[in-house]
Amino acid sequence: MTESVHRSLQTGTVAAFDAARGLGEIESDAGERVTFHCVEIADGTREIDVGGRVSYSLLAKFGRYEAASIRREP
């Protein structure tokens, strides 16, 4: 298994989330899109609102980066 976490904290907005599939996308403040799976939502709820502000880390997984340790921002 070749997974590693890029430690710098990123911020952005939830651009899309499909609760049935548990998949979503975050648009970073730099304008890049990053995918995520609901198990990466840090509070364990597995639900998140589109348009909500979040902070996250980047996880290198299967040759691309995904959002990990997603936390809601106030």
Task: Explain what the structure shows.
The chain is mainly beta. It has one domain: Nucleic acid-binding proteins (OB fold (Dihydrolipoamide Acetyltransferase, E2P), Beta Barrel), CATH 2.40.50. It is built from no helices and five strands. A hairpin with a 4-residue loop joins strand 1 (4-18) and strand 2. The mean pLDDT is 92.
Quick overview:
The chain is an all-beta fold and 74 residues long. The chain is built from no helices and five strands. The protein has strands at 4-18, 23-28, 33-37, 53-61, 64-72.
Please count the beta strands (DSSP E, at least 2 residues each).
Answer: 5
User: Structural class, from helix and strand content?
Assistant: mainly beta
* Residue-averaged pLDDT: 92
Distance between the termini: 35 Å
Percent range for β-strand residues: over 45%
Main sheet record: 5 strands, antiparallel
Order of helices and strands: EEEEE
CATH superfamily: Nucleic acid-binding proteins
- Please tally the helical runs, counting DSSP H or I stretches of 4 or more residues: 0
What is the domain total for the residues?
1
* Shape annotation: globular
Strands in their spatial order, largest beta sheet: 3-2-1-4-5
